[in-house]
Design a protein that fits this description.
- The complex is a heterodimer of chains A (129) and B (426).
- Chain A contains 1 helix and 11 strands.
- With 129 residues, chain A is mainly beta.
- Chain A has one domain.
- In chain A, strands 1, 2, 3, 4, 5, 6, 7, 8, 9, 10 and 11 form an 11-stranded mixed β-sheet that branches.
- Chain A is globular.
- In chain B, the strands form 3 sheets. In chain B, strands 4, 5, 7, 8, 10, 12, 13, 15 and 17 form a 9-stranded parallel β-sheet that branches.
- Chain B has 426 residues and is mainly beta.
- Chain B has a domain of 115 residues.
- Chain B is elongated, with a radius of gyration of 32 Å.
- Classes of the chains: A mainly beta (129), B mainly beta (426).
- Chains A and B meet through strand 7, strand 8, strand 9, strand 10 and strand 11 of A and strand 15, strand 16 and strand 17 of B.
């Protein structure tokens, strides 16, 4: 499950693998398959073939696949799909405008984004999250 | 001296005879009636023509050097290339006269009336035009270096390319005058009235504009280096104006138009306006739109409340103001950019336009943004509210540093393509 690529160790959920339950790692986690449950790691990468459903608490989240559930991260980069009933909380969020011509970079379902400090003069800011 | 007496002149004039090249130097012709008389190339140096009636006379190339013409009626006369150096024309009536290329250096025209007179390329160095009525006069390319025009009325005057270096225009009325490309270096324009005047590319280096009224004036690309700019410049067009070393003490500029074409498409208010006039304007947070594009600009410092605004297809809307409880409808392809200073508080945006948020948006009621084709929140943007996507899905972009408390909803009529995760990407 853990692969070593040059000097960096990563926890890999390979394509065709489905993991249900809780995954806690001190290494970055790369998901090419499917994870349902809880993920705690310094970094989580979801490849275009991967999906994570459940809860994740990570330092960095880079997602090109599908996300569903609650995600807490310091830094988030999105370029995949965000499913309904998903909440993403982050210090910073980066979403590019376009990928390939005619394609959306991110397809958002019904979700919530709480990014950065609450805007200073937004009295209802907390209620929005 | 003159080879004709006063009586002979009056008799010949009565007979309609010509005085072409006549020697009339020093002759006393005070109050003489010489209307329509041919005086071309006549020599009237030092002649006394006080109160004389010369309306419609032809004085082309005539010499009137040091002549005394106080109160003379010179309406519609032809003084083309006439020599009037040092002449006294105090209170003379010169309405409609042709003084093109005339030499009036040092002439006294105090209180004279020159309405609609033609003075193109005329020499008026150190001439005294204090209190003169120069309404509608054409002084293009005229030499008015060190001329005195204090209190003169120059409403609608044409001063294009005129040289007014070190001229005194204190309290002059230049309303709607055109002084494009004019030289006004060191000119005194204290308390001058220049509302709506055009001074495009004029040189106003070290000019004194203290207390002057330049509201709605066109000062694009004017050079005001080292000037005293304590004037009212509200509504002035100021794109490209140069103000290095200018003193802004006493300046009033509620807003200025910084659009390149002076078409009002880039209104800048408050501190930003003063920043432009001080030459210290920061790079605009909203880049100027391409020429010819329909643009609606709401400048910094403005506050708009309870307004409903509709912008059609292809229109660019740039907001640096504060909008409160406003509803904005965007046609397909319309572009709404909220600049860094822009705040949309308790507002709603609806329609298939594209939204770029450098500033702040707070919704009034959910959803605050409905159906945008594209929503970009840049690194300094802030959004608090709910976004209902367009039926074809909204394109989102978020830059690191943006601050969001937002919900994203699918369009009410959208096919169920995302809910299941099996939907087709667009």
């Amino acid at each position: 499950m853990t692969e070593s690529k040059q000097s960096e160790k990563r926890t890999l959920v390979e394509e065709g693998t489905e993991l249900k339950g809780s995954l806690t790692s001190t290494c970055p986690v790369l998901v090419r398959g499917r994870v349902e449950g809880e993920v705690t790691a310094p970094a989580l990468t979801v490849s275009p073939s991967g999906s994570v459903s459940g809860r994740a608490k990570v330092g960095e989240l880079q997602a090109e696949g599908e996300l569903s559930g609650e995600f807490d991260a310091d830094v988030v980069q999105l370029s995949g799909k965000v499913q309904d009933r998903t909440v993403i909380r982050a210090k910073t969020l980066s979403v590019q405008l376009t990928a390939e011509s005619g394609k959306l970079q991110v397809v958002f379902g019904e979700c919530e984004l709480a990014v950065g400090d609450p805007p200073p003069d937004a009295p209802d800011a907390d209620a929005k999250t | 001296m003159a080879n004709l007496t006063r009586e002979e002149v009056l008799k010949k004039a009565g007979l309609g005879e010509s005085f072409d090249r006549a020697d009339l130097r020093g002759l006393d012709l005070a109050n003489a009636v010489l209307e329509g008389v041919d005086l071309r190339r006549a020599d009237l140096e030092g002649a006394n023509l006080e109160g004389a009636r010369l309306r419609g006379a032809n004085l082309r190339n005539a010499s009137l050097r040091e002549a005394y013409l106080t109160g003379a009626d010179l309406r519609d006369v032809n003084l083309d290339k006439a020599e009037l150096e040092g002449a006294n024309l105090e209170r003379a009536k010169l309405d409609g006269a042709n003084l093109s290329r005339a030499n009036l250096d040092g002439a006294n025209l105090t209180g004279a009336s020159l309405k609609n007179a033609r003075l193109t390329n005329a020499q008026l160095q150190s001439a005294n035009l204090g209190g003169a009525d120069l309404t509608g006069v054409n002084l293009s390319h005229a030499d008015l270096v060190e001329a005195y025009l204090g209190g003169a009325k120059l409403v609608g005057a044409n001063l294009r390319n005129a040289d007014l270096t070190s001229a005194n225009l204190e309290e002059a009325d230049l309303t709607e005058a055109n002084a494009d490309d004019a030289e006004l270096g060191g000119a005194d324009l204290k308390r001058a009235r220049a509302k709506g005047a055009s001074l495009v590319k004029a040189n106003l280096t070290k000019a004194n504009l203290v207390g002057a009224d330049f509201t709605s004036a066109d000062l694009r690309q004017a050079n005001l280096t080292g000037s005293k700019l304590g004037a009212n410049l509200t509504g002035a067009r100021v794109a490209g104006v140069i103000t290095a070393g200018a003193s802004l003490e006493g300046i009033v500029a509620d807003w200025v138009d910084d659009s390149r074409d002076g078409d009002g498409s880039r209104r800048v208010s408050g501190v930003a306006a003063l920043s432009i006039l001080s030459g210290k304007a920061p790079a605009p947070s909203v880049p100027p739109p391409p020429r010819g594009q329909a643009v609606r600009y709401f400048g910094q410092g403005d506050v708009l409340r309870n307004a409903t605004l509709e912008f059609g297809e292809g229109i660019k809307v740039q907001i640096e103001s504060r909008f409160e409880q406003c509803s904005i409808a965007l046609g397909r392809g319309a572009e709404l950019t909220v600049g860094k200073a822009g705040v949309l508080a308790q507002c709603r945006i609806e329609g298939a336009g594209n939204i770029t948020l450098h500033g702040r948006f707070f919704e009034r009621e959910s959803p605050g943004i409905v159906g945008p084709g594209q929503l970009v929140v840049t690194s300094e943007g802030q959004l608090v509210g709910t976004v209902e996507q367009a039926p074809e899905l909204t394109k989102f972009a978020f830059e690191p540093g943006c601050r969001l408390r937002m919900k994203i909803l699918r369009a009410r009529s959208e096919p169920d393509q995302v809910r299941t995760g099996k939907g087709k990407e667009r």
